[in-house]
Amino acid sequence: MTVPTSDADRRLRLLADATATLGTLSDVLNPLGERFAEAGHELFLVGGSVRDAILGRFSGDLDFTTDARPEKVQALLKGWVDKQWDTGIEFGTISAIKHGQEIEITTFRADAYDRVSRNPIVEYGTTLADDLVRRDFTVNAMAMKIGADGSYTFVDPLNGMDALLAGELDTPSAPENSFNDDPLRMLRAARFVSQLGFTLNNRVFEAIKEMASQIERITAERVQVELNKMILGMYPVDGINMMVDSGLAAYVLPEVPQMKLEIDEHHQHKDVYQHSLTVLQQAIDLEEGDPDLVLRWAALLHDIGKPDTKRNEPGGGVSFHHHEVVGAKLVRKRMRALKFSKQMVDDVSQLVFLHLRFHGYGKGQWTDSAVRRYVTDAGELLPRLHKLVRADCTTRNKRRAAQLQATYDDIEERIARIAEQEDLARVRPDLDGNAIMELLNIPAGPQVGKAWTFLKELRLDRGPLERDEAEAELLKWWATQQG
């Protein structure tokens, strides 16, 4: 008979595991604690560093807080660390590297906020409690005191361990006060739901519902950072659901909750929103190695063009003609508003634009020319496009699902066969610019570009040509241009 593990037992085991994890960094932690103690100061490991050590997902980040002022911290680190810098000194933070390990040490803070922006009015605290109570969530308000003798003492005045054991996010103070101070914490809640698999305390969820519009105080750049961390988490579907259910998504990703109203004609057991979350999860399941930010965004947003293209057809049917075209435009608009890089915008929108192309393949009726164009249009995104298209199959009809996967197996095999004969990854004309200018006796300019485009289209249609054949085709085309 298995005896259920009590919370007390779990607490002891988790703290023992955390202490063992921190022990692997004793060459940094122990002498650092000793230096501060000898100078009459306290030093605590805090925040995500403690939380993740307890959860067994320690990333190696070391964030500390201390009663020592920044100038004193600098003095204590001087001559011991390999390098230190003070770019965060206005917020009381000194950063350093020791044995390749990055550390950040921040003086106790008891900040106030102007509640217009999210900028704190930096004010130093006098106790650890001052510092911990200002943090976003109780699971991030636990600390480990680093002793002079190499000991680690767990400090938890806000019961963060209870919340961690319950898998719950709660705020140290009233959530309304916390979110008024810094609305970004609402989005951080979604991120932690995704990263940790936690749920929100009811009072936190209700506060976000009431205050969701306050997220508009936050810059697009900061919103983007949190959204990326959320979608890269282990449970992004839960994070997205939390954002939609609380109303937060209506302000940062409005196209996503709008999909809840649209019924997907291919998957009538799901609305477009649920279908998109399923595609996201299935795309994640197809990832190889690290989480793929581009693939995950494309999977989530691949059908956002459907609300704007929905048409009720005679007989009760529904269509979404050209939703991939509309969707690609919406992706570009939203991602630009969130200040994503040009490359990111281009990649995600192109995947959305191409995600339906495969469905024209039928039972393999595409010509080799069409296959070449599919590969060329996808370019370096082709491996991601393969995964997105496969993930986009969410039908419950096992026979249809098997047919779709078999058909995509077939197109991948054809791509591989043609690639063995041709350099599909780099489809270029059979003649370069210099050869074009020499053959046509023309200088560099727009006409060379037109000739190059003609030859590339020819290459896509017919595959590689012998040089004399390519020259003959170019001369025939050039003759038609002279009339």
UniProtKB/TrEMBL annotation:
Top-level taxon: Bacteria
GO terms in the biological process aspect are: tRNA processing
User: What's the Enzyme Commission number for this chain?
Assistant: 2.7.7.-
Q: Which residues form the HD/PDEase domain?
A: 268-434
Q: Which key words tag this protein in UniProt?
A: Magnesium, Metal-binding, Nucleotide-binding, Nucleotidyltransferase, Transferase, tRNA processing
Could you give a GO molecular-function term held by this entry? tRNA binding
Q: What does the record give as cofactor?
A: Mg(2+)
Does the UniProt entry include the keyword tRNA processing? Answer: yes
Q: Is Metal-binding one of the keywords?
A: yes
Instruction: Show the NCBIfam families listed in the entry.
Output: HDIG, tRNA_CCA_actino
Q: What is this protein called?
A: Putative tRNA nucleotidyltransferase
The root-end lineage is: Bacteria, Bacillati, Actinomycetota, Actinomycetes, Mycobacteriales
